Amino acid sequence: MVVHNPNNWHWVDKNCLPWAKEYFATQLPKLxxxxxxxxxxxxxxTGDCDVSNRKGKVICIYDMILEITLQSEETTGTLKVKExxxxxxxxxxxxxxxxxxxxxxxxxxVPEIQKILWQFQxxxxxxxxxxxxxxxxAHE
Length: 140
Prior knowledge:
The chain is α+β, with helices and mostly antiparallel strands. The protein has one domain: Activator of Hsp90 ATPase Aha1, N-terminal domain (Bactericidal permeability-increasing protein, domain 1, Super Roll). Helices cover 30% and strands 35% of the residues. The protein has a five-stranded antiparallel sheet. This is Activator of Hsp90 ATPase. Belongs to the AHA1 family. One of its GO terms (cellular component) is cytosol. InterPro entries: Aha1, AHSA1-like_N.
């Protein structure tokens, strides 16, 4: 995707929402949640996710909603991250249909999910910066 961009100076954007969807669909179900009492069965991601290069610096800007379906023997519920934003580390969660297991989800499962959320930005930039920046090539 690299375009002619001397010294990586000009603004270049890349839509990374498909990458983000794949990332969360892959990473979140790997979590061992509450001694495998819960498993993540579906992840829905909507919103915007872009990686940009400007003046030689790679940055990301995202504002997404994540809906994570958790299933146990007792219940199937949805954990919604209402505003997953690039410049915040505290997120608001909405809990649906967890019943008596809500406290368990809040205390044991959300902290594990947060680890993936906190790692996302670093992984996103690492995965995309090669596409956005030209390598300096010495000319003879």
